[in-house]
Amino acid sequence: MAHRQSSVVAAAVAAGAIALCFGGVPFAQAQIPAFPANPFSATITITSGQKKAAGPAAGTLGVTSLTITNFNNSTQQLFVFAPVLGGPNCASQITGGSNPSYTLILEPNRTLQLPFPTPLIFPKIGGISCIAAEVTTVQTGNVSILVNGYSQ
């Protein structure tokens, strides 16, 4: 009994690449992703009325996850955005905001984990790439945001 080679699919792993073959003919090659060259992590702790930013010293920030904790007994509203800054780095005064921007409602005494399998990109504004947040509830709020990602 003869084997039909035209319908055989074979996968071969060679030198960090995966090659797909249909009937012995290479179909596609994909490189195994590398770790980001410049990992980034920062914690932003804010209370009501404060705006704070964080970001890399150089490059464009790509956020892969946010871990947000509401330490209060009441619901808090959090505004996360790309800041417009009045100075040369992310510690400068925030003078405005841009996209991406999100409003989140945080349950009392809870932690919210937001993963971004495709990184959330914060473009450079005035040559600086940062993420910022502000607690916009009237009650005094204490919220912590752990930002994980990379810059490139």
What would you call the structural class? mainly beta
Sheet-strand content, in percent, reads: over 45%
The average pLDDT value, as a whole number, equals 83
**What is the count of DSSP helices, taking H or I runs of 4+ residues?**
0
Low-confidence stretches: 1-21
Spatial extent as radius of gyration: 22 Å
Q: Which descriptor suits the 3D outline?
A: globular
Q: From the 3D coordinates, which CATH architecture of the largest domain would you assign?
A: Sandwich
Distance between the termini: 56 Å
Keywords:
152 residues, mainly beta, Jelly Rolls, 2 domains, 4-stranded antiparallel sheet, 11 strands, 0% helix, 62% strand, disordered N terminus
Reconstruct the topology from this structure:
Elements: E1 9-14, E2 17-22, E3 25-31, E4 38-47, E5 51-54, E6 61-70, E7 76-85, E8 94-106, E9 110-122, E10 131-135, E11 142-151
